Amino acid sequence: MESTWRLHHVGIPVRDLDKSLENYKAVGIATFQPEFLIDSSTFAEYLVYGKTPDPVVKTRGAMGKMGPLGIELLQPVAGETVHKEFLESKGEGIGHIAYIVDDLEAETAQLVEKGFPVILSIKNQGQTARSAVYIDTRSKFSHLVIELLQARKK
User: What is the spatial distance between Cα 87 and Cα 90, in angstroms, rounded to a whole number?
Assistant: First the structure.
């Protein structure tokens, strides 16, 4: 199980993506790729707590690097998401740790069997299998969520 996980990034919910990017850039400790928008209506499947979100979820984001560590800044802008929940309950800070795994479905099944439910499930357009899941480990791991990402098939 965990021995094959490869750290990809930490996810950090923020209230204001522009201000957060300015702060990181001003200190010079991180570099970022261009901003992206997560729009739940553009995915083949986007389930929050097992349901299609209504209204549509929209989240502004930016992936970056801080030394060897990948960081993802996420600003919820519409709909109900785990990132919005985190901001409302805890404020800004590390909300999830993401790992690349070789077999997303098998790893997810093992965690669900151990009592950790899936809180977000994403399937990209044109794919039959999920590409990412958020696993709710908050009750055991200090309010932390684990994201698992399917490794690209070779």
Answer: 5
Q: Are 77 and 99 in contact (CB under 8 A)?
A: no
Which CA distances in Å does 106 have to 84, 85, 111, 120, 137? 28, 27, 9, 16, 17
Q: What is the C-alpha separation between 129 and 44, in angstroms, rounded?
A: 10
| 117/61 Cα distance (integer angstroms) | 25
69-97: per-residue pLDDT in tens? 999 999 999 999 889 999 999 899 999 99
Where do we find the tokens 């993506």? 17
Which residue segment(s) compose the domain that 28 sits in? 2-150
Q: Where are the beta strands (DSSP E) in the chain?
A: 6-13, 31-32, 36-39, 45-48, 58-66, 69-78, 96-101, 118-123, 132-136, 145-150
pLDDT of residue 154: 57
Domains contained in the chain, number: 1
What is the β-pairing status of strands 6-13 and 69-78? parallel
CATH number of the domain within which 67 lies: 3.10.180.10
